[in-house]
Task: structure prediction
Amino acid sequence: MDRRERLAAASRDGHLALRRVERQQAIVERLHATRGLPVRLGLLAEELDVSTRTVARDLERLRTSGVPLEVRRGRSGGVRLPLVRSPVQVELDVAEVAAVLASLAAVGPNASLSAASVLRKLADAVRPPSDGSSRPRPRT
Result:
């Protein structure tokens, strides 16, 4: 395999990975929008224009990465995110924030509304106050 073929393959693999990440984000946002109600895998597959098996693989990757998905089999089954009634607070140091910002930049900060929102919040969190003080800014 020559250099051009390797670069083309790497580019294709990167494109597929990006599509997978975008699709997984869309799944999480779709499940979040249902406010704890289950969604059938077939419906997710139809909405995302992929196979049910692709959705199942995406869900498994999300579960492996720590997303708290609940799957129920059967006629009234589906997948759901547990309902969380209040915003979640997470403490990150600057290096951790930078890692998340870099990941968002790679995916594309406008890939979804939640990606754009978290990018804005994280960037604001590490930006020095405009008045030059070192006091922490209020959380948004």
